[in-house]
Amino acid sequence: MKIKAFIDGQFGTTGLELKERLIRHPSVELIEIDSAQRKHTPVRKAAMQDADVVFLCLPDAGSRVASQWIDPDTTVVIDASSEFRTHKDWVYGIPELVGAREALRVAPRIANPGCYPTGFALLIQPLVRAGIVPKNYPLSVQAITGFSGGGRAMIDEYEAMPDDQRVNAVAAYKSLGLDHKHLPEMQHVNGLDMAPLFVPTVGAFKRGMLVSVPLQQSWLNGDAQTIQEIYQLFYQHEAFVRLHRLNDYDALHNGYLQATASNGTNDVELFVYAKRGQIFLSARLDNLGKGASGAAVQNMNCRFGFDEGLGLKA
């Protein structure tokens, strides 16, 4: 069976990455429009009506409008913006979370997750559900991403910099206002009593991501070994989640946990390090892969009954 897919916003960063994956997908026929007509509403609507699945790779306001053009009885929509991630009528698209895969298989409207929230949810949701991390724990999240995470404007800005200037351009990104747009998603999806303190940083590299959560064992209902065992139970059958052994110092590069080692994959690598009552959790992923376009393809595969790895393995 082949399905027809249309990307609204296919000339943006996520749209271009998504197009690459769909082109090599054996069960997808990609509907394309000329770049000169990418903002022409009648052309976009016609493409949507011809599609079995529409991917919205638009700003929040654009997704809000375009989603209203799509009949959920005939066409599946997968939205890559943050507009619908906590909306009750949209299914949140991380198949590895409890109950998500079953919901995705029948969902007419799927909210693709944010890149940071993907790493955070895969680290925290199993521990909250198991009662290891209390719902009222004052969580903090330290994260770093490549500059592609800021979209086309940031990519152009960083790529125009000389190498020495780019190295000095590592900076806290949309964090000091303490109202980052991912916070509602991070709280809602994980059933937390309050949003975490979230400090994202942009690195001097184009793509790649680390999402890290420090914990104090004395505030938990378990230790690092318990956390490791919970992860093993939750993710033992998941093709795209790779759990490293507890305190896997061999995974470090000259003592550093690199943000770029999962680039080009749909994998999320999970790490647990512990010492003297302190625990450090980290998730590594490609912010343009499992953090964006790879997740969208995996959600489509899940929805239409394809192998979840189709189009995602080189």
Task: Give a concise summary.
The chain is an alpha/beta fold.
Question: C-alpha Rg, in Å?
Answer: 19 Å
Helix content: 25-40%
**How much strand?**
15-25%
Shape: globular
Largest beta sheet: what is the strand line-up?
8-9-7-10-13-12-11
By DSSP (H or I, 4+ residues per run), the number of helices equals: 10
Which H/E pattern describes the elements?
A: EHEHEHEEHEHEHHEHEEHEEEH
Largest β-sheet summary: 7 strands, mixed
Number of E strands:
13
The assigned structural class equals alpha/beta
* Terminal-residue CA separation: 21 Å
Which regions contain 5 or more consecutive residues with pLDDT less than 50? none
Mean pLDDT: 93
Summarize the helices and strands and which ones pair or pack.
Layout: E1 3-8, H1 13-23, E2 28-31, H2 41-50, E3 53-56, H3 60-66, E4 76-79, E5 91-92, H4 100-104, E6 109-111, H5 115-129, E7 140-145, H6 151-159, H7 163-167, E8 171-172, H8 183-190, E9 197-202, E10 209-216, H9 224-235, E11 241-243, E12 268-275, E13 278-285, H10 289-304
Parallel strand pairs: 1-2, 1-3, 3-4, 4-6, 5-6, 7-9, 11-12
Antiparallel strand pairs: 7-10, 8-9, 10-13, 12-13
Helix pairs in contact: 1-10, 5-8
Describe the structure.
Helix 1 crosses helix 10 and helix 5 (115-129) runs parallel beside helix 8 (183-190). The chain is globular and about 60 Å long. It is 31% helix and 20% strand. Strand 5, helix 4 (100-104) and strand 6 form a beta-alpha-beta unit. The protein has 314 residues and is α/β, with parallel strands linked by helices. It has helices at residues 13-23, 41-50, 60-66, 100-104, 115-129, 151-159, 163-167, 183-190, 224-235, 289-304, and strands spanning 3-8, 28-31, 53-56, 76-79, 91-92, 109-111, 140-145, 171-172, 197-202, 209-216, 241-243, 268-275, 278-285.
